Structures are given as C-alpha cells and as structure tokens.
Amino acid sequence: MAIPIVLDHGSRQSLQGQIFEQLRHLILAGRLKPGTPIPASRVLAEQLGTSRNTVLLVYDRLIAEGYLQARKAIGTYVNLELPETCLAATRRIATSVPISGESIDRPVIPFIGRVPARNPRNLDFDFYPDRIDPDLFPHKIWRRFINRTFTSTSTHFNFTEYCDPGGLSQLREVIADHLGVARGISVSSDQIIITAGSQEGLNLAARLLVKDGTLVATENPCYQGAALLFESYYARLIQVPVDESGLNVEQLPKEGVALLYVTPSHQYPLGFTLPIERRLKLLDWARRCGAYIIEDDYDSDFRYRGSPLTALMGLDDYGCVMYLGTFSKSMGAGLRLGYLVVPKSLVQAARAAKALLNNGHAWLDQATMAEFIRSGAYGNHLRRMRNLYCKRRDCLVEALHEHFGPVQLSGLESGLHLAWHLPESYPDAFQLQALALRQGVGIYSIGPGTACDFGKCDYSARTLVLGFSSLNEYQIRAGIRRIADAFRDFPPNILTRDIT
C-alpha cells in the first residue's frame, strides 16, 4: 500500500528526518496499526522519489527505537507492542496538538447511550422476547431461489444499476397481494416502501411527520426502539396507558397530536389485542384530531387462536394509517427486509424521503424474497413456524402452571412472547429477573432492553416478559424448572404456596 508521506525538498530538515517523523506520527496516531506491513524499502523509495539507502536508514532507526519489527524473509511490520517510550511520545503529541476554537455548540442528543439492548449475555436458557429459532430458516429452499434468481437473464443489469428507492416492484406487488388476504388491507404496490426492517420504517415515518416539538403519542408501555427514535427527532412524547383491551382510546389527547404509534394486534410488550370497537374509535379520533397512526404489525403472521382482526389500515377510510411490517420475525432479522405502507397522499413524500436515506436495498435479496412468496413457499414456511411456535407456547404455559400453580398470562392469542403477571405475594419482576439471571436463565421485566414504561405504568413492577420462539420444548421446561428451584432460596412466607 502507498503510505501518505509528503516530502518538502526546500525544508531545512533532511529527507531522512522528514520520512522518520511522518512514519513515527502515523504509527503513534494509530493510522498504521500494530501488525500492519510496511512497504519494502525499494517500493517506498520509488514512491517518494528518493534513494533506497535513505529509506533503509529510516527503517533501521524505527526498528532500533521499537516502532517497527523486521521479520526475516517476510518483511517489516509495525511492532505489535509499542514500548513505553513510544507510548510516552504518543501522550506528548496528544497534548501538543493545538485546539481550533475554544468551544463548539452542539445539540444535545437525547438518545446517546440508550440504544435498545441486544441481550449479549451468555445464558443457558434465554426467554428473550421475539427472537426466532435460527434452525427454522429454510436454507435449502432459499438457496434454490437465490440460484434461480442469480442466473436470470437480467442479473448483470440489476447488479450494476441502482434499485428503485421504493423497492423492487415484484416484491412490492406480492406484499400487496399478501396483505390483502392476510390483513384485509387493499393497497396498490406504489403505496409500499421496502425498508431495512421495521426500524427503518419507523425512521422513514418520523422523517415525514416529526420535527422538534412535535407531539407524538405512544402506548405505555411501548416498544423501546420506537420511543427512542421519536426522542431522537426531538418529539414531545405523550404516554397513553393500556389495559386488557390494549390502548385506552378514551385517554388520548383531544387535539395537538400529530402522530400515534400503536401495536394493536399484539401490544408490545403486554400482548393485549385491540378489539374492533376500539379500532373504530381510534380511527375516528385520528380523523377528528388530524393525526396519523403508525400501525406496527410486527408479529401478526403468528396467530394461534381464531381469525386475526382486520388491520387498522384495512378499516381506514380517512387515509390516516401507515402500516409497518417486517420479515424479521418470519424469516430472520439478518435479512433486513421490512416495509412501510403509506396512504396515497404520502406516497411521493415517502419515496423522496426514502431516496435520501438510501437508493434501495440489495436487489438479490428482494428478488429472492419476491419469488419465495410468489411460489407459495413463504406460506408453507409460515404454517410450519406457526404450528411449532404454538406447541412451544403451550409448553411454556404448561410449565408455568406445573411449577407455579394458577398463573395470570396475557398475549396468548398471537405473537412470539407472553406476559406473566405476578401476584402480590411474589417478589417483584425485577427481583425475579435477577434471581433467574443468577441461575443462568433470562426472563425480562418491563424496562431497558424490552420496552419503555416511562415510570408510570401499572404493569411495570409485576410483569415478566417471556419469549418462547427461540427455545425448544426441552429447554423451555428446563428453564422454568430451574427458576422454580431457585425459589426455594426465598423464605417460605414470600410465596402463598410451596414451590416444588
């Protein structure tokens, strides 16, 4: 590689000294990292237009002082461990760098250090919500569709051209057909914007509707990634409580709200379903208030009891609902494919905003997903996952009943997690989470890493969230049994019944 060294032939400093100082500074500044190979002396001499002996003398000096290391028959490298004398030189250089300007006024970013946790802990049994089983990904079928798509006659053209910022037309068309059947939404493919998962869809909606001081209403508790995103746009958040029927529409502000974020099909994280009466009241509120609604239908493909209710957007006659969908729960988060369906009045603005974010996503992934859906393989894949996850949900419910007696649960009708509402006689959710963690089991209270509760949620202290989709039935039973065994460490009067 060429090293950025510039020689000043009119300088009083020798060429050897200039090369030495610039190489030393590159090493101390970290631009030449430990273990980085240095160009051969002949190559560097040709680059700089100087003699090879000059470069050799510089290398010898840097080796002598511990900056470089010569490896016989291999080459010269930056030393893996710089000696203390070199580190002292680094500190001297750092303190001698002049500061340009006394201070710079920068905006306070409210979300720094508060990005949603990805749960890096190494646990024996982890009930983290909404994580899918990696073994269920249809590797063979997906590989077949990739190969078929890759060998199509237009492949070379598609790889050398920018994609439509709104997404591949074939994928948008099959998504529109899927939503019509599965969610009762009648939209054209032009209203669909392909995104890199639901989080980018939220970002796109916020770019359209949120600015400094905009009133945004959310459920309380709500999905953490949404609350932090709106905060990053300097929105003023209004928390609306939920009850056993989902968002309490009666407690929405009568005016002033520009945007409402809601999860009506499987409220996150409590799992309640918004009934049809409240859905209609919510749409009427949006019409009267002049607000838009983001309907996050993140796990609607997994319905275990009865037929799914028509999506809010399917009931919307006012053009006020944006529908947020994702393939992260059905295929995998690593695929980074989702979509935002916008009202017709926002199509042009949404496409323009999306073009500012990026010029579309990887063509091959979109084309493969389109063929996967069109062929019927996606429907078969969903049925397989739905049946298996239903068994795992039932296994979790049975294990909780077996070890803890009658338990109050919510979110059983759909989704990939359920909520366990603890009786007053039990330790609170935070204590049980800590207790399980010491036993190598992950169960989750409502708080950082799962949801935002804004400190005013009636469910916070006595609700645990348990995901079941990434564990097999043996792991589910073993994990719950280990938690129950750990209860024996508590004094007998803490529980109303003897845990065995």
Category by helix and strand content = alpha/beta
In terms of per-residue confidence, which ranges show pLDDT below 50 for 5 or more consecutive residues? 89-109, 492-500
Report the major sheet: 8 strands, mixed
What is the architecture of the largest domain at the second tier of CATH?
Answer: 3-Layer(aba) Sandwich
| Mean model confidence by pLDDT | 84
Explain this structure.
This protein has 500 residues and is of the alpha/beta class. The protein has 3 domains: 15-96, Winged helix-like DNA-binding domain superfamily/Winged helix DNA-binding domain (Arc Repressor Mutant, subunit A, Orthogonal Bundle); 125-130 and 380-494, Aspartate Aminotransferase, domain 1; 137-377, Type I PLP-dependent aspartate aminotransferase-like (Major domain) (Aspartate Aminotransferase, domain 2). Helix content is 39%, strand content 14%. The protein contains 16 helices and 19 strands. The chain has an 8-stranded mixed beta sheet with strand order 5-13-12-11-10-6-8-9, sandwiched between helices. It has a 4-stranded antiparallel beta sheet with strand order 14-15-19-17, covered by helices on one side. It has a 3-stranded antiparallel beta sheet with strand order 1-3-2. Helix 7 packs parallel to helix 13 and helix 8 (198-209) packs across helix 12. The longest helix has 28 residues, at 377-404.
